[in-house]
Amino acid sequence: MQGHGQIETKLGKIIIDKDVIATYAGSVAVECFGIVGMAAVNVKDGLVKLLKRDYLSHGIDVKIDEDNEISLDFHVIISYGVSIATVTENLMQTVKYKLEEFAGMTVRDIRIHVDGIRVID
After folding, report:
1. Neighbours of 103 (CB within 10 A)
2. What whole-number distance in Å separates Cα of residue 66 and Cα of residue 70?
3. d(CA 17, CA 66)
4. What pLDDT digit, counting tens, does each position of 56-85 carry?
5. Which of 2, 18, 75, 84 would give a disulfide with 62, using CB separation of 3.0 to 4.6 Å?
């Protein structure tokens, strides 16, 4: 797996770092209905922590294959009382559409890991 994506143009090549893709995808995700934020899981003790907006990319794993296609793993915290299926389907469709428009690359697949729920006042 490569550490970046690329777009070929008539004037040359544009290289896009995986962290840029992750940050953009995280920004899109937290704007989606029912998503409280990105999650960080402490493997040692199994605790889930809500990431601050400055660390959105830490809840997303980006892989770019040899065909220059993006695969994403999201670790999210959702709002209590919403339909997980509806929220995650909306998240996948929205991120796929906006990320492909932003990066000019194909999103091959998106996996959502719901790591927690939060009651929102």
Report:
1. 21
2. 10
3. 15
4. 788 899 999 988 999 999 999 999 999 999
5. 18
CB 72 within 8 A of CB 106: no
Tell me the pLDDT tens digit for each residue of 16-26.
899 999 999 99
> Roughly how many angstroms between the first and final C-alpha of the chain, as a whole number?
42
Contact 101, 95 (CB under 8 A): no
In this structure, the dihedral spanned by the alpha carbons of residues 107, 20, 13 and 96, taken in order and rounded to 10 degrees, is 20
- Amino acid at residue number 63: K
Domains of the chain with bracketed CATH: 4-118 (3.30.70.1350)
With tokens 């919403």, the residue in question is: 82
Q: Which carries the bigger pLDDT value, residue 104 or residue 1?
A: 104
- For the chain, list the strands marked E by DSSP: 4-9, 12-17, 35-41, 48-50, 60-64, 69-79, 106-118
Q: For residues 40 and 77, give the distance between their C-alpha atoms in angstroms, rounded to a whole number.
A: 9
